[in-house]
Design brief:
Elements: H1 2-24, E1 35-37, E2 40-44, E3 49-60, E4 63-75, E5 99-113, E6 116-126, E7 131-142, E8 145-155, E9 160-164, E10 172-174
Antiparallel strand pairs: 1-3, 2-3, 3-4, 4-5, 5-6, 6-7, 7-8, 8-9, 8-10
Length: 185
């Protein structure tokens, strides 16, 4: 019975960590403006991608992403119901007409929201599927609780996560008990 209770606590904690990761990795889910600073920006409207390169910091609301490189893939579009003027292309992301479909953060990736932190070597967010994949020593913290593996897949709308180990390197979870007299939030 004690083993069953411990296993149940572990599952509940992993789900709580997944929810924390979900909240920490939803940078494109808000209607708040996104502010990005980087050493360089390269936009290719034909390929529908914007590359932010060097010491990238992207902020939206209370979510901050830092990384070495941020790639934003988008679909070019015009205002709803409006065709592009004859001889002109649809508006690109820098024109306020692009719709983000995928974001890839590369190198020293860190995503922070309040007491939630997610890190890895690469993070890919698919807006349409509302899915995030952290890769390369992926770790998510919420307060003192932690889950880590080689990859962490977060299914944002399903409130679930899958943590993958690799041969010779297993998944690890650390659960810090709540201090006596304090209620969990």
């Amino acid at each position: 019975m004690r083993r069953v209770a411990s296993a149940a606590l572990l599952v509940i904690t992993i789900l709580a960590l997944a929810a924390a990761a979900r909240a920490a990795t939803m940078p494109m889910a808000s209607d708040q403006p996104i502010h990005v600073v980087a050493d360089r920006l390269e936009v290719d409207n034909k390929a529908q991608v914007a590359h932010f390169i060097g010491a990238v910091k992207a902020t939206q609301g209370d979510v901050t992403i830092t990384c070495d490189r941020l790639e934003v893939y988008y679909d070019r579009q015009n205002a709803p119901g409006q065709p592009a003027p004859q001889g002109e292309a649809a508006a690109g992301i820098m024109d306020g007409g692009g719709k983000v479909r995928k974001v890839v953060a590369l190198g020293h990736v860190k995503i922070v929201q309040k007491d939630r932190v997610a890190v890895g070597r690469k993070a890919t967010y698919w807006a349409g599927g509302r899915k995030m994949l952290l890769e390369g020593k992926a770790t998510v913290w919420r307060g003192r609780n932690q889950v880590s593996g080689d990859k962490i897949t977060l299914y944002l709308d399903q409130d679930r996560a899958v943590v993958h180990g690799r041969p010779g390197k297993r998944v690890a979870v650390t659960i810090a008990p709540a201090a006596k007299g304090k209620k969990k939030k």
